Amino acid sequence: MVAAIRVALTLFVVVAVATAPVAAASGPTSPCFPGEGHQFDIGSDTAGIDLVVFLSLFENLGNAGGFGMEARGDIGETTIVQLRTGVAFDGVGPATAFLSNPFSRFSVVYDFSLNLPMFASSGIDSSYRDEGSPVDGIQTKQC
Q1: Closest Cα partner for 90 from 138, 18, 133?
Q2: What is the pLDDT of residues 68-102, one digit of tens each?
Q3: Rounded to a whole number, what is the largest CA-CA distance in the chain?
Q4: Which residues contact 104 (CB under 8 A, 6 or more apart)?
């Protein structure tokens, strides 16, 4: 009898926890990746790296999602380097189209910029930007 009560109480607690409403997590969003990312801050306010990792490809199976990262290195208020890279998925869509060409729903995300303001007054081109994907054969998503 005691064992049956323990099992019933355990089952009640498991069901109550599993069905309890959970507040939606709010993380950083991106024009490059669907869903919300996970924020990591490295360094300090004077010199640091802001890193956002996107895992929505695995969190929203079958729906639009992404797997990648955005990193931005700043010194003070000046952005020195920025990199966005990963894979974006548009969702399964129509089943027959997906099964005939599943890679058509994926795109490579790539955006890199470098800015060296300390060389701007020397007449040397102090900034660089590359939006072309280093991967051939898969479409590139622009941010």
Answers
A1: 138
A2: 999 999 998 889 999 999 998 888 888 888 888 88
A3: 87
A4: 97
